[in-house]
Design goal:
With 108 residues, the protein is mainly alpha-helical. It is 77% helix and 0% strand. The protein has one domain. The protein contains three helices and no strands. The longest helix has 30 residues.
Length: 108
């Protein structure tokens, strides 16, 4: 049993929107954490790893899972990876403290 065409279209649109948000956010993050003189190099490495290795891994593993199991296992596997990414992000940001509103206030 395969998912409906509507479900495939909906998931593709959601994935497209998430990538549309993720790529600029990643580039902005790189710009913030790297010195200006190596920003271009950092963006190149980010693109090579994210778009090159990431796409290869996803396509390769997704194909194996689809051949051996079903499309549902592919969605489950990548859903679990996405959830792990969210959990890791929450753990990494747990220790960070948001800057206070009066942090830049200077008494005169």
């Amino acid at each position: 049993m395969e998912p409906s065409l509507g479900l495939i279209y909906a998931s593709a649109m959601i994935q497209g929107a998430s990538v549309g948000l993720f790529i600029p956010a990643g580039l902005q993050y790189i710009k913030e954490i790297t010195p200006a003189h190596i920003t271009a190099t950092a963006v190149t490495i980010y693109s090579a790893i994210g778009n090159g290795l990431g796409n290869w891994f996803s396509t390769f593993v997704g194909g194996i899972l689809y051949d051996r199991f079903s499309i549902y296992i592919v969605y489950l596997f990548f859903g679990i990876l996405a959830l792990m990414g969210v959990i890791l992000t929450l753990i990494l940001h747990k220790g960070k403290k948001a800057p206070g509103l009066n942090e830049n206030y200077v008494n005169s």
